Amino acid sequence: MRIAFITVHGCPLRQAGDKDSGGMNIYILEMVKRLAARGVKVDVFTRHHDSLDPQIVTLAQGVRLVHLPAGPPSLDKNGVYELLPIFVAQMRRFCILNKLNYDLISTHYWLSGLVGMRLAFEWDVPHVTSFHTMAEMKRRGRPEEIEIRQRDASESEIACSAASVVVWTEDEKEAIVNYCGVDPVNVSVIAPGVDLSRFRPMSQRYSRDYLGYGPEKNILFVGRLEPLKGIDNLFRAVASLENLKSITLSVVGGDGNSQEKSRLEALVQKMQLNQTVHFLGPIPQEELPIHYNAADVCVLPSYYESFGLAALEAAACGKPVVASEVGGLPAIVNHGRTGYLVPPKRMDVIAERLCELLEDDLLRGQMGAAARIQAESLGWDSSADSLLRCFKELIEDTSEPVISLAGD
Ligand code: UDP
């Protein structure tokens, strides 16, 4: 089986947590490696984004990453829309020159969905799409979210034309069915996972010493810096805590030059949280376990979260998580057992839960241990098995029909 993965703006080699790179990039990398380990040949097509990148990179045995030129390397993801016809032409050309045929196309995010829709039609192969985020879901979480004009209609068109839409939660399935008018039979819910050997409990004392932390209790946020993540609400919650002097908040991830970073830094100044909040910038994923392990609690105060890999990684490291009750987060946080679910935007409730957890070592220990046990059922291998099953069924469906003889 040979599959083309298309991720026009989300190169899996990009640093997650920076600019537009995050959970989707991690998901693709984990999935393609595991599909290859199951005997599938995978080519991942992405836009050339760095002049030093070679055109083809081997990611693992059986997985190649192909950088295709389409527009200037440094470009915001929304700028990519206009370049999609060039990307389609480049991909077509690459496949003809290299005599490549694929059994199925798997696309990620609506921009890539448009490319996949076009090529799947030309090549007459099944197209499986995953949006990772949807315009409508983002707006429901935070009505101020602005998307480029074409996104809503494109998402409906892609979803209705695809052989299958893979989503991460039942919530997202409902949205795709209701909002895009897709037949529920064509939507598969396949939750992503976590690398359980990378993200595992380690000594908190060792981790804190390694990072040079003092005796203060540490709250951790991991993710891209964007308004949808609700980090300002976390700052407000932390600012209201009484024992502020004995607390630090580490913010991991975020493009240093972004508008959102400047806005959050200004907020920290205004709230006089300079001694409490530390912006650590994007950190390679292999270095993240030590940050999760050094922390006392991890918080995801998002307005919307399609899944929330950071919450699952924290849980796998044995940490309690306080997270908004949105998107995939209720599938990760078992309220009252492995952490707390809070209504989004309610900084008073976040503060209350942080207080409870930071003041009670026993509770944190119990919740952390339960979090790890729960995370153990969410490894990447079962996600990869389910995705492969979905691909196989679609490929079998479209292969030549068996003509039965009269009387059979
Ligand atoms: N991440 C990382 N380094 C950072 C920040 C984040 O490697 O500095 C990774 C993190 O481990 C997680 C992903 O980026 O796997 C973020 O995924 P999540 O689902 O939490 O958020 P999304 O980016 O999808 O909104």
What key attributes describe this structure?
eight-stranded mixed beta sheet; 2 domains; 17% strand; disordered C terminus; binds uridine-5'-diphosphate; 41% helix; Rossmann fold; six-stranded parallel beta sheet; alpha/beta; 408 residues; globular
Give an overview of the whole structure.
41% of the residues lie in helices and 17% in strands. With 408 residues, the protein is of the alpha/beta class. Strands 3-4-2-1-5-6-7-8 form an 8-stranded mixed beta sheet, with helices on both faces. The chain has a 6-stranded parallel beta sheet with strand order 11-10-9-12-13-14, with helices on both faces. 46% of the residues are buried. Bound molecules: uridine-5'-diphosphate (UDP). Uridine-5'-diphosphate binds next to α1 and α11.
Concise summary:
The chain has two domains: 2-193 and 379-394, Rossmann fold; 204-375, Rossmann fold (3-Layer(aba) Sandwich), CATH 3.40.50.2000.
Present the secondary structure layout:
Elements: E1 2-6, H1 23-37, E2 41-47, E3 56-60, E4 63-68, H2 84-97, E5 104-108, H3 110-123, E6 127-130, H4 135-141, H5 151-161, E7 164-167, H6 170-180, E8 187-189, H7 204-211, E9 217-222, H8 231-239, E10 247-252, H9 259-270, E11 277-281, H10 288-294, E12 297-300, H11 309-316, E13 321-324, H12 329-332, E14 339-342, H13 347-359, H14 361-375, H15 380-398
Parallel strand pairs: 1-2, 1-5, 2-4, 5-6, 6-7, 7-8, 9-10, 9-12, 10-11, 12-13, 13-14
Antiparallel strand pairs: 3-4
Helix pairs in contact: 1-15, 2-3, 3-5, 7-10, 8-13, 11-14
The chain binds uridine-5'-diphosphate.
Residues 16-17, 22-24, 26, 222-224, 252-253, 282-283, 285, 288, 307-310, 313 line the site of uridine-5'-diphosphate.
